[in-house]
Amino acid sequence: MTITDRTVPGLGTTSDLGDLVALGCRVLAYRGLAEDILGHISVRTAGDELLVRCRGPQERGLLFTGSDDVHAVSLDGESEMPVGFSAPNELPIHTEILRARPDVQAVVHVHPPAVVAADLAGLPLRPIVGAYNIPAMRMAQEGVPTYPRGVLINRPELGQDVARALGDRSVCILRGHGIVATGDSVEQAVVRALNLDALARMTLQANSFGTTPPELSAEDVSAMPDLGSAFNDAQVWAYNVSRLQLAGLADPL
Amino acid sequence: MTITDRTVPGLGTTSDLGDLVALGCRVLAYRGLAEDILGHISVRTAGDELLVRCRGPQERGLLFTGSDDVHAVSLDGESEMPVGFSAPNELPIHTEILRARPDVQAVVHVHPPAVVAADLAGLPLRPIVGAYNIPAMRMAQEGVPTYPRGVLINRPELGQDVARALGDRSVCILRGHGIVATGDSVEQAVVRALNLDALARMTLQANSFGTTPPELSAEDVSAMPDLGSAFNDAQVWAYNVSRLQLAGLADPL
Amino acid sequence: MTITDRTVPGLGTTSDLGDLVALGCRVLAYRGLAEDILGHISVRTAGDELLVRCRGPQERGLLFTGSDDVHAVSLDGESEMPVGFSAPNELPIHTEILRARPDVQAVVHVHPPAVVAADLAGLPLRPIVGAYNIPAMRMAQEGVPTYPRGVLINRPELGQDVARALGDRSVCILRGHGIVATGDSVEQAVVRALNLDALARMTLQANSFGTTPPELSAEDVSAMPDLGSAFNDAQVWAYNVSRLQLAGLADPL
Amino acid sequence: MTITDRTVPGLGTTSDLGDLVALGCRVLAYRGLAEDILGHISVRTAGDELLVRCRGPQERGLLFTGSDDVHAVSLDGESEMPVGFSAPNELPIHTEILRARPDVQAVVHVHPPAVVAADLAGLPLRPIVGAYNIPAMRMAQEGVPTYPRGVLINRPELGQDVARALGDRSVCILRGHGIVATGDSVEQAVVRALNLDALARMTLQANSFGTTPPELSAEDVSAMPDLGSAFNDAQVWAYNVSRLQLAGLADPL
């Protein structure tokens, strides 16, 4: 398992994956990608298991996720949880993607309104931005796939359908539903969800006037460097954790 | 009377219906469904009475509702209130719906801008979302009725007109005015108002580009489970109460 | 001079008009009607004078207005201010409206983006809402006049032009610039500015889809009661002051 | 070097240019012009050097910039920084503009979504506002140039291209990327970025209805006074610093 640097500025070194899952849920909710209680994050652990954000007897929504909301589940969905806790209804999103994609270590599922709206409006997410957000540009250039059904992904077969729609990409839109974002770490999956949301918001705004925004030229695409995960993921993650701290939402986990 | 679980995480067990009405008013205002001072919530009590958010000598708007703003009124509008308090001008919305709908225990009336705008723009609230918000999908599939007049509902006959427009549905749009949402508890009525608002916001955004967003397929609609009120209502309520707490708005009632 | 009840819940009785002017500036800025440092409020006092929000050596924008930013000026623009303070460049807006309209006691000038945008887009403010906001409906029904120039109103002749454009109405749009709102009190002028802004925001949203929102019927207009200034102005004012308090912006003046 | 008055109300006299750069970064991020970690400010110092916002080992985004993130670099990009710090990838934006424009003392580079969206939508920034925002009107009247490539400006040749696109103007749009704003002080460059953003937001909103907003008349343009940098820049800066203070973001630097 390749997990990026766990040093979160301001929080000290975090070795607990459960804390990362909880923090990631709070970041996504704070940034508006997860209204109310819906959405979850999972991360693969040693031993063919995953840690996933569950629902407990004190459920208060993603913004208020605690480390004790995160529990281990096997890829077959088996688990031993404290009384009152249960895995998400849509656990198959996580288990089937982790099964189909050995390179993926973490999976985000949330409901960003802008991404859902852009898809429903028939607006493809094209590479209209460059240095504005390089990882978002790359996502758009590779093409963001869409799973066309709006059903709840509560059976393994449906999870397999989503995994097929995702293919070898990093993110996938679920029509009338939300998104899936993957990464080699919780931080990367969360930041990719944020980047997809930023691309969708720009797409909605730039398409409101009956004109078609120009795509980045091939020359500009090929000139664009990869600034690396330490820059693209770890620093953006640290920014978002700092915003949680400012809002009184980072402590205690 | 079937009221859902009153346990509000972080607030202890609440048995006082007046506290629930006050909290519900704050939630609706905090989430942007009730600008300024307009709107109210009622809940049926034993003895053919209702508790309703009134206006008092220290009126400061729905966001700052206290338990002492909530008073008992009979279905005929009779009450004995402390000096300076009066029932809302639009009390007939509450009394006539509670009279016409024995299954309804609580009634919300607020002015969500997105719902009013979508109706004025001629945009019907169709089932364009699925798992994004299942209760909103069901509302849209059943059809959201509209009461076509913009008048103040300050007479029993007008309240009866609104009750007729509502029919057997859970929510109703009042054109150029606001909405009515009903439930078997304060929590359910409040959360249904939030869901209607979420549907309207998505409808506005997805219809901004001259395309018609696709509806959920019949197959997907029929595959959608009912996750139950403990999930759909109580947990979303707990999330919203937690947001009030974070904002310094939950204490004291 | 008829000034509405000065009792501000939570702040005790306020007899100082300067405090009201300062609070009103903060309310308008907090609600997004006055970006940065631009805008001011005036109120007529005994002796043919007005109190007006001035600029001083510690100018920090409308959101941070203090009572000591408010100074007396004659209708001819003469004043004796502390060193470093000066009347607004656009003082003639206030003096000429107060001169032309003996019924007006207070004048607001701010730059609400939604009102300016609706006017630039050619969208008239029509009575599309009813009970959503009755005072806004009345404004729209009477017709909201527009002063068609975008110049700075820094000479008496320009102030007279604005007063003529305002005529006998309560509010006026200044194209590419902002608005003027008047009232028989600071509170009423501020709340009218808020209502005009609410109407413009609804107009923008309801007109975004190529359809023309229906106007309220004549029958509904004539059925609409006047709920009075204690309800329409004083309670909305109290709500807004409470929001300032919650935001840490009400104390000290 | 002509730097405007350094007296920042509430913060005492600030003579440290590094503090100003840090504060400016926070202002831009707080006002929504710089999402996440991207963007920077530079200021020319004596001795043919600049101070520029760098990236360090505790990078947490522009909103959390500290004085210790600001370091000296020569116009040739040479520097001696503490371990772990590095100049921005896009340092050539700063060095080449400062080299080409001896009149410029400070350079801002950020990614305001509204400006990028308006450009992608093909909406020119025209002088549609007057007294709403006089400096924005002047910018629009002079014409806001666009650099048409979306590439990362990480080589001197690209920085020279941007400087050429900027020409003798105060601001420049970088397509699919962001903006450059210049000034004779950090404060002026920051406030110009804010004004450009305000103009873009108004342009987006006023162009949403298929109509073309009217431009200010030549007569009104020529009647518009220059209120001076103490008013246009220093007071707007003081307002923005006060907002940081209210948000708990001004101390410590």
Notable characteristics:
homotetramer, 253 residues, alpha+beta, L-fuculose-1-phosphate Aldolase, seven-stranded mixed beta sheet, two-stranded antiparallel ribbon, globular, disordered N terminus
Biggest β-sheet strands, sense, barrel of chain A: 7 strands, mixed
Write the CATH architecture name of chain A.
Answer: 3-Layer(aba) Sandwich
CATH class of chain A: Alpha Beta
As for the CATH topology of chain A, it is L-fuculose-1-phosphate Aldolase
The ordered H/E elements of chain A are EEHEEEHEHHEHEEHHH
Mean pLDDT of chain A: 92
Task: Describe the global form of chain A.
Answer: globular
CATH superfamily of chain A: Class II aldolase/adducin N-terminal domain
Largest interface, counted by CB within 8 Å of the partner chain's CB: A-B, 40 and 40 residues
Provide the structure class of chain A. Answer: alpha+beta
Q: How many structural domains are formed by the residues of chain A?
A: 1
Low-confidence stretches of chain A: 1-14
Strand content of chain A: 5-15%
Work out the helix count of chain A: 8
N-end to C-end Cα span of chain A: 24 Å
Count every beta strand of chain A, where a strand is a DSSP E run of 2 or more residues.
9
GO molecular function (chains A, B, C, D): aldehyde-lyase activity; metal ion binding
Keywords (chains A, B, C, D): Lyase, Metal-binding
Protein name (chains A, B, C, D): Ribulose-5-phosphate 4-epimerase/Fuculose-1-phosphate aldolase
Domain Class II aldolase/adducin N-terminal (chains A, B, C, D): 19-204
